[in-house]
Specification:
With 202 residues, this protein is of the alpha+beta class. The protein folds into two domains: 98 residues, Probable tRNA modification gtpase trme, domain 1 (Gyrase A, domain 2); 78 residues, Alpha-Beta Plaits, CATH 3.30.70.1520. Helix content is 25%, strand content 29%. It is built from five helices and ten strands, in the order αββαβββαββαβββα. The strands form two sheets. A five-stranded antiparallel sheet has the order 1-7-10-9-8. Strands 3-4-5-2-6 form a five-stranded antiparallel sheet, with helices on one face. The longest helix has 14 residues. It is globular and about 55 Å long.
């Protein structure tokens, strides 16, 4: 197992310029984030020993409520279902985190799976990000319903996506399958054009 980030394919590398040009300073921007390690975790949230072991090994607590995200520095734990979470950790710490999780969990009824190649992460951020995202997403994104620390699995441009609002800006992290990444990216890029925003100066 290698922790070399340069070996991970970035499906939108050839679209970076187009995504940047579609944004507008101070309004909204779209970019593909650098890869991070992604770990699918399954276990019993009612088992205090399981919860403590995960926190010790992964360096981040599991969310206590559905559709929430806990963060600790560059690490995050996203709620996917009552017994499933997605852990995001720095890519350079992928192997160490996987090994520590498996060691700490021992013979508990749990599973730890490296899914780092399963999704790429887009970031849509800016005061108009909510309006842009709403063009291709059926979620109620109003602040009273979806805010910082919330996440949800949904359809974005008719493709499976995991959406996480990370701050009040608002900033959204869009986790999508690499094979659908270009299609999903075209949705907010098209919405940006509809809003007639100016290109970012080079």
């Amino acid at each position: 197992m290698t922790d070399r980030m340069d070996l991970i394919r970035r499906p939108l590398a050839d679209r970076a310029g187009a995504m940047k040009a579609a944004g507008a300073p101070g309004e909204v921007g779209l970019r593909e984030l650098a890869p991070c390690a992604q770990i699918d975790l399954r276990g019993d949230a009612a088992d205090a020993g399981f919860v403590a072991a995960v926190r010790s090994a992964a360096g981040v607590a599991l969310p206590a409520e559905p559709n929430r995200v806990e963060t600790a520095g560059e690490r995050a734990a996203l709620w996917l279902s009552p017994d499933e979470w997605l852990l995001l950790v720095p890519f350079a710490e992928r192997t160490a985190t996987l090994e520590k999780l498996r060691r700490e969990l021992g013979d508990r009824h749990a599973s730890v799976t490296d899914v780092s190649a399963n999704r790429t992460i887009l970031e849509l951020a800016g005061p108009k990000a909510r309006e842009v995202l709403a063009k291709g997403c059926g979620l109620d994104l109003h602040p009273r319903s979806f805010g910082p620390g919330d996440c949800a699995q949904t359809l974005l441009a008719r493709s499976q996506a995991l959406i996480w609002q990370s701050d009040e800006t608002p900033t959204y992290r869009l986790l999508v399958r690499p094979s659908f990444a270009a299609h999903v990216a075209d949705c907010p890029v098209g919405a940006l054009a509809e809003y007639a925003l100016s290109p970012i100066p080079r």
